[in-house]
Amino acid sequence: MQILNDIELERSRIELAIEKFGYSPDHNFDWLKNCSSEGNPSFAVWEDGSGIWFYTSKDANQYVIVADPIAPANAQDKILRELCDYVLDRGMTIYFLDVREAVQDFVLKNYRDKFKLDYEIVWPVVDITTWDPKLPGSHFKELRNAINKSTREHTIKIVETSKLPKKDLHGIVDRWFANRAKVGITVLPDRYHDMIDNDFGGTKNSRVMIVDGKPAGFNAGWETPNNPSEWSASIGIHDYSIKDLGVVLLYEDLVWIKNAGYKTCDLEGSDPQALRFKTQFFNSFTTYKTYTFYVNK
User: Fold this and answer.
1) What is the CATH number of the domain that holds 157?
2) Is residue 297 part of a domain?
3) Partners of residue 295 on adjacent β-strands
4) Any idea where the Phosphatidylglycerol lysyltransferase C-terminal domain is (predicted)?
5) Is the same domain home to 85 and 145?
6) Do 105 and 135 belong together in one domain?
7) Is pLDDT at 107 greater than 80 in this prediction?
8) Is position 285 within any domain?
9) Among 104, 128, 159, 273, which residue has the least CB neighbours within 10 Å?
10) Per-residue pLDDT, 184
11) Which among 97, 121, 145 is the end of a domain?
12) Are residues 83 and 167 in the same domain?
């Protein structure tokens, strides 16, 4: 195991690992970097090029492992064991952030007495090939009415994020954060501010929705590594400036994904409220879970 501390210097090496072994929407260099703003990001790498992204927390004596190992399934236990033992032997705690069941199973098998679950979330995956943007049927009537009313009463325009000043995009994130805070929902605005400052690096497409002349929301995403027919709808943020803006923004994203020719779409990790909101556009969907937990020293 070798630990790479200068991730930008080693970007090509890390991106090669993702190209070879990546499979999760979170396996995206720039997104992993954005998710590591609370500490110093590093990458543990092995001889075959596989690795684990983590950061050392500035405020706590812990390593935060972000997402699944970027490695073949049959190699993950070995490299997880090596990194975990390395961290625990140094007297530090490990915080696993949004990892899948196989990783949690490994920890329960090997470190059960040190395990403490924080939370789990559900990730819906939808079939885009069979999705009809017309939303036919009585069960979609409320959605159709909301979309039609919004487009009838407001002037809505879609442009590339690169066409707007960054301050306008930062303003959307600030208003989104303020609205979520009012209702007691914890969100992490820093990673989205970092994404804007980084010119949406790591995304394949990013678009902003302008409502009545004012920037109000944006969508961005990328292809799931080693699955080019699947789009990861990773980013969808709006400022709640008009009723049903979230519905209109997600609908715009789904139509774009459909027109781009993707077969499936990962709608990203969702709490129960977000899961209901995202999946209301579909008759059926599949899911998987990720888990966030501590391994205490």
Assistant:
1) 3.40.630.30
2) no
3) 94, 115
4) 47-232
5) no
6) no
7) yes
8) no
9) 273
10) 79
11) 121
12) no
On whether both 148 and 225 belong to a single domain, the answer is yes
**Token pair in block for residue 88:** 């625990």
Question: Is residue 270's pLDDT more than 80?
Answer: yes
Full DSSP string of the chain: -EEE--TTTTHHHHHHHHHHH--STT--HHHHHHTTTTEEEEEEE-TTS-EEEEEEESSSSEEEEESS-BS-GGGHHHHHHHHHHHHHHTT-EEEEEEEEHHHHHHHHHHHGGGEEEEEEEEEEEEESTT--TT--SGGGHHHHHHHHHHHHHS-EEEEEGGGS-HHHHHHHHHHHHHHHHHTT----HHHHHHHHHTTTTT-SEEEEEEETTEEEEEEEEEEETTEEEEEEEEEEEE---STTHHHHHHHHHHHHHHHHT-SEEE---B-HHHHHHHHTT-S--EEEEEEEEEE--
Q: Identify whether 293 is part of a domain.
A: no
Q: Which residue segment(s) compose the domain that 235 sits in?
A: 129-262
Distance between CA atoms of residues 33 and 12, nearest Å: 14
92 vs 201: CA distance, rounded Å: 32
Task: Tally the domains of the chain.
Answer: 2
Together in a domain, 146 and 112 = no
What does the angle CA 27 – CA 256 – CA 211 come to, to the nearest 5 degrees? 110
In a domain, 269, yes or no: no
pTM of the shown model:
0.94
Segment 31-83, tens digit of pLDDT: 999 999 889 999 999 999 999 999 998 677 899 999 999 999 999 999 999 99
Residue 113 and residue 20 share a domain: yes
pLDDT-derived band at 154, boundaries 50, 70, 90: very high
CA distance 151 to 154: 5
Tokens 């789990």 identify what position?
Answer: 120
Give the chain's length.
297
189-214 confidence digits (pLDDT tens)? 999 999 999 999 999 999 999 999 99
187 pLDDT tier (thresholds 50, 70, 90): confident
